[in-house]
């Protein structure tokens, strides 16, 4: 007895899956006419989930300036003008809550609707707190809540992706890259148009609403795969079986280090640059003032991230560790640049920052795309939720290191750019 045409039509509106006939034979439904809904939804979810996180980092310089007017300005006027609190402090507020959430989430029940409801509510609350902040603690609390929202969303959406077509990983990654470009560009543009920080944050409340629409209305509910025959179940080897229990999950983590360590290093290096050194890169007497230079360097970086996170279906790179080596070279360049000011043009910096973003985005998307192909389906949900923590470990370490390094460089005599193009 074969599967009826009606059943095939119904199945074709869902994710490709195994259909089992009464005789025990199995075949896959190849045509999925509504796959575009899942791919589009995951792009939007990636965009909205990371949007608030990006905006808070783009606004870091302004948040600090709003409540910290003091700058380091040594006697004689030969010192560097720096905020006493580096943007690394905002980075820590923006990543530590997310990291804490990512560590806990894999061990909690996978109540997807509850998780996403909390993520959407936290995202909206974060924008409101930062927008209406009249004290530094209130602004930082808004950053913290936004970070928690991003952490809940990222672990949940990536784990949930194991129930969909594997290409949702590429559209999710592209969406998170799009969040970087749209978030940093929208913030920089609105501030350039003299829109107040409060109104800027209120405008951005549309993104939590879009996230809710994409998840509950656009994304299809995954179907539970039919129960296969006893014979096919017995063919599953132990490595393919889903992980059950805390002990079994903990013992499996060591198998994920090959994915986690390179990703952690890439993000450690790039966020050390972004939050410890970007603020100190300064070109005098050009078309951008100091604050604008910081904002547009962030936009440039996010463009690189977006391009590379959208490229996995065209180009794959398995050697993620190679990207960490290149990113370390970028650290050496920026560290020496902010000390000696030897780069003759800001356009050279823009090119290097774009390259930095390409490396970071490439490491992210290639890591998770490899996992979608290499990790057994029964273990992908836990594996995705664990590996997604690794970038946050690197970012958190970068934030802690960025603060003392930033302050040490600020204490050095100011350099004069000898050659200017």
From TrEMBL:
Keyword Zinc: no
Region (Disordered) residue spans: 1-21
Organism field: Drosophila rubida
Family matches, as Pfam families: CLN3
Family: Belongs to the battenin family.
Subcellular location: Endomembrane system; Lysosome membrane
CC per GO annotation: endomembrane system; lysosomal membrane
Keyword Transmembrane helix: yes
GO biological process: lysosome organization; regulation of intracellular pH
Topology with respect to the bilayer: Multi-pass membrane protein
Main location: membrane
Gene3D superfamilies noted in UniProt: MFS general substrate transporter like domains (1.20.1250.20)
InterPro entries reported in the protein's UniProt record: Battenin_disease_Cln3 (IPR003492), Battenin_disease_Cln3_subgr (IPR018460), MFS_trans_sf (IPR036259)
The name this protein goes by in its record: Battenin
Entry's transmembrane regions: 40-64, 84-105, 112-133, 139-160, 172-190, 202-219, 256-273, 320-340, 346-369
Domain of life: Eukaryota
Keywords for this protein: Lysosome, Membrane, Transmembrane, Transmembrane helix, Transport
């Amino acid at each position: 007895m074969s599967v009826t045409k009606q059943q095939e039509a119904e199945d074709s509106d869902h994710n490709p899956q195994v259909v089992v006939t009464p005789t025990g034979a199995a075949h896959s439904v190849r045509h999925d006419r509504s796959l575009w809904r899942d791919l589009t939804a995951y792009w939007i979810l990636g965009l909205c989930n990371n949007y608030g996180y990006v905006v808070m980092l783009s606004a870091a310089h302004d948040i600090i300036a709003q409540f910290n007017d003091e700058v380091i300005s040594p006697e004689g006027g030969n010192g560097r003008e720096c905020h006493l609190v580096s943007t690394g402090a905002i980075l820590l507020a923006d990543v530590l809550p997310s990291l804490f959430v990512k560590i806990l989430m894999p061990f909690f029940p996978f109540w997807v609707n509850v998780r996403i409801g909390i993520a959407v509510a936290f995202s909206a609350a974060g924008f409101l707190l930062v927008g209406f902040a009249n004290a530094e603690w209130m602004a930082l609390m808004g950053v913290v809540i936004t970070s928690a929202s991003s952490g809940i969303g990222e672990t949940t959406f990536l784990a949930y992706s194991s129930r969909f077509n594997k290409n949702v990983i590429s559209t999710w990654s592209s969406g998170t890259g799009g969040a970087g470009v749209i978030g940093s560009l929208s913030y920089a543009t609105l501030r350039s148009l003299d829109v107040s920080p409060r109104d800027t944050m209120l405008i951005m409340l549309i993104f939590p609403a879009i996230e809710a629409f994409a998840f509950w209305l656009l994304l299809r509910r995954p179907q539970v795969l039919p129960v296969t025959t006893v014979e096919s179940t017995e063919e599953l080897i132990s490595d393919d079986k889903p992980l059950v229990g805390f002990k079994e999950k903990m013992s499996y983590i060591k198998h994920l280090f090959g994915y986690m360590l390179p990703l952690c290093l890439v993000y450690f290096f790039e966020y050390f640059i972004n939050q410890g050194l970007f603020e100190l890169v300064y070109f005098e007497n050009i078309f951008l003032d100091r604050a604008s230079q910081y904002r547009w360097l962030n936009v440039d970086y996010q463009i690189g991230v977006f391009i590379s996170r959208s490229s996995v279906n065209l180009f794959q790179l398995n050697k993620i560790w190679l990207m960490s080596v290149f990113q370390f070279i970028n650290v050496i360049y920026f560290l020496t640049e902010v000390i000696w000011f030897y780069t003759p043009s800001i356009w050279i910096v823009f090119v290097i920052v774009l390259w930095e973003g390409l490396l970071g985005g490439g490491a992210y998307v290639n890591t998770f795309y490899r996992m979608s192909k290499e990790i057994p389906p029964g273990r992908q949900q836990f594996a995705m939720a664990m590996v997604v923590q690794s970038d946050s470990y690197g970012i958190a370490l970068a934030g802690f290191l960025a603060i003392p390094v930033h302050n040490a460089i600020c204490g050095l005599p100011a350099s004069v750019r000898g050659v200017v193009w």
